[in-house]
Design a protein that fits this description.
The structure holds 2 protein chains of 2 kinds.
Chain A: H1 2-24, H2 28-53, H3 61-79, H4 83-104, H5 110-129, E1 140-141, H6 153-177, H7 179-189, H8 191-196, H9 201-220, H10 223-227, E2 229-230, H11 232-235, H12 238-251, H13 257-276, H14 279-296, H15 300-310
Antiparallel strand pairs in A: 1-2
Chain B: H1 2-23, H2 31-49, H3 53-80, H4 85-108, E1 123-125, E2 131-133, H5 134-156, H6 158-168, H7 170-175, H8 180-205, H9 213-227, H10 232-252, H11 258-272
Antiparallel strand pairs in B: 1-2
The chains are: A mainly alpha, B mainly alpha.
């Protein structure tokens, strides 16, 4: 695949730009906010692999994200594992959960699947609330390792997130361009017909839920070090569920660039709104923008651009 | 005992979902937001003028009926007619849920709100140390009355039968000279009105904050699925099962696990028998 070479090069260039930005040591708030936006790039991209490509709407985004975060908390408490281990482990545990909900799709389609993922999120939150070792309902403080690169730990985490975001987008792009993406699109449009044409629907769905779960877990794993305090309400926040699906919907779900556009736009807008107005108004804006887009521009920004070009 | 009373109330909470999701097949996950909106409407009238919260709830049902009918019209015009209701319709209602919840928390803050009425805090003594609190008994009775009313409405009246018909075969209904969109608008409005009345019951039972709606998403859908999608009698039975299961869980293991019960039942029901106990 010759094109993949180019996209990897672009990805490396983006990471290099991120590292360069980290070395500049501009206003620390930039890294702080940038981390959140990049985190949403990963989340939106991961959601879109299942929701956009395969057409299975996942309301359980917080479950996967928090599972990644709490896996990290567990490993920090039990063996003070280094960050790369946390990220991989968080991803793998969430991938396992993804595989589980993949088997759920055998019986549940459409709405029922979505409601089940929502249920999953609440059940998992209850388990965490009752698990004292990782902080229970009170939450837990996490100490950052000393001596991070780039002066401050948040700056370091920012560069890590740049790498994760690039990785997630490359994975999504690869899936979209390969036969897997075409298979997923076929089952999204008509699952029975795809099955009849010999598309291995179950294997594809399991693949999509697992990869999506893995990336969501990866997004959550650095979260304890970022906030240095983890409690169930912030890790399982409904914001992740609503942003995770609002961003791809606003950007456009059919292409890998859609979630990126949505995450950068909506993420930046909500960072600005949180600082200048209030965090609750910011959530309200996300909700209104989401509904407006779904009603008025169902294909998202990408669809709008395409329509303008078509004329 | 507490579980049985809770069951009657849960039936009231789930009737709207039974109607909208079970019969009309519209995945209105914004339903709990209307429940909480009903709670806050009752709270405002109760705290400002001292009206009985449940009477206010009943008085406000026409208003919520109109809101519900309006929401359905928007939903119909933007999704159902285009034929892509499944994915985007779901997201639409999710956004609606979010907007209502955040608007309420901006208006009223995140403090717990409680309604006052003469009977709240009193109880009947059944002897042997067993008492029944009015604040559980009254909502339970209202819930049972709502269930019975909806059952009779669906079975006996023209519009009720038309709603049953629209859930079975829209084309046939159209051939009979009735407009399915009109019938569905009525049914959706009734569903939302039922949710708002249940919200008034909710605030007499327990204090409410805007994010309470999340606790009820699972309960509503668990009861509807377990009861068998749109079966009113099934909804009542499933509501009682859930109410008893939750209070047993809260008594023997701990109240923090009660939440997981409804979702556990929901996952189990979806995985083992998606048609529910009384499914067609």
């Amino acid at each position: 695949m010759p094109r993949l070479g180019w996209s990897v090069l672009v990805g490396i260039a983006v990471i290099a730009a991120g590292v360069a930005l980290a070395m500049l040591r501009v206003n620390p708030y930039i890294y702080f906010a940038g981390y959140v936006i990049l985190q949403y790039v990963v989340i939106a991209t991961a959601w879109n692999i299942l929701g956009g490509y395969a057409g299975y709407v996942n309301f359980g985004t917080p479950a996967f994200f928090a599972l990644g975060a709490y896996t990290a908390v567990f490993l920090i408490r039990s063996m003070t594992a280094p960050l790369p281990v946390l990220i991989v482990a968080g991803g793998l545990v969430s991938a396992l959960l993804g595989l589980g909900i993949g088997y759920l799709t055998l019986r549940l389609r459409g709405t029922f699947f979505s409601i089940a993922t929502l249920a999953l999120s609440v059940v998992l939150q209850t388990v965490i609330i009752n698990w004292e070792y990782v902080g229970g309902s009170r939450g837990i403080s996490v100490l950052r390792p000393a001596g991070p690169p780039f002066g401050s730990y948040v700056t370091f985490l920012f560069t890590v997130m740049v790498g994760l975001a690039v990785g997630a987008v490359l994975v999504a792009r690869f899936i979209e361009r390969s036969w897997i993406g075409r298979g997923l699109a076929a089952l999204r449009d008509n699952e029975e017909a795809a099955e009849c044409m010999g598309v291995p629907t179950l294997r594809l769905k399991l693949f999509a839920t697992t990869v999506s779960g893995f990336l969501l877990g990866v997004a959550g794993a650095p979260f304890p070090y970022y906030l240095t305090f983890v409690e169930p309400n912030s890790a399982f926040a409904l914001d992740y569920a609503v942003n995770g699906l609002a961003m791809p919907m606003i950007g456009g779900t059919t292409s890998w660039i859609g979630p990126v556009i949505g995450a950068v736009l909506l993420g930046t807008a909500s960072q600005v709104a949180t600082v200048t107005i209030s965090s609750e108004l910011n959530l309200l804006i996300v909700g209104v923008v989401l509904v407006a887009f779904v009603v008025l521009a169902p294909e998202g920004i990408l669809g709008l651009v395409r329509r303008l070009r078509g004329r | 005992m507490a579980g049985l009373l809770l069951g009657g109330f849960y039936a009231a909470v789930s009737l709207g979902v039974s109607l909208i999701f079970g019969l009309l097949d519209i995945a209105n996950i914004a339903q709990p937001a209307f429940l909480i909106a009903g709670s806050y409407a009752a709270y405002v009238a109760n705290s400002a003028y001292g009206f009985d919260p449940i009477l206010v709830g009943i008085a406000l049902t026409p208003l919520f009926y109109v809101i519900g009918a309006g929401v359905y019209r928007v939903y119909y015009a933007t999704f159902e007619r285009r034929g892509d209701e499944a994915l985007r319709g779901l997201v639409f209602f999710f956004g609606l849920l979010f907007i209502i919840e955040v608007s309420l928390s901006m208006r009223f803050g995140v403090d717990y709100r409680m309604a006052q009425a003469g009977y709240v805090g009193k109880s009947i003594d059944l002897g042997g140390g067993v008492g029944v609190a009015y604040r559980y008994l009254v909502p339970c009775l209202v819930g049972l009355a709502m269930t019975l009313a909806l059952y009779l409405f669906l079975g006996r009246t023209f519009y009720g039968r038309a709603i049953m018909a629209v859930s079975q075969d829209q084309g046939a209904l159209r051939l009979m000279g009735a407009n399915p969109v009109h019938i569905k608008t009525i049914a959706f409005g009734i569903g939302i009105a039922a949710a708002s009345l249940a919200g008034a019951l909710l605030i007499t039972i327990a204090p409410v904050i805007p994010s309470t709606d999340r606790d009820y998403i699972g309960r509503m859908f668990a009861i509807t699925v377990l009861g068998g999608m749109g079966s009113i009698g099934g909804t009542l039975v499933a509501a009682v099962i859930l109410g008893v299961a939750e209070s047993l869980m809260a008594t023997f293991i701990g109240p923090s696990w009660a939440q997981a019960v409804s979702f556990g039942i929901l996952l189990l029901a979806l995985a083992v028998r998606p048609a529910g106990l009384f499914g067609r």
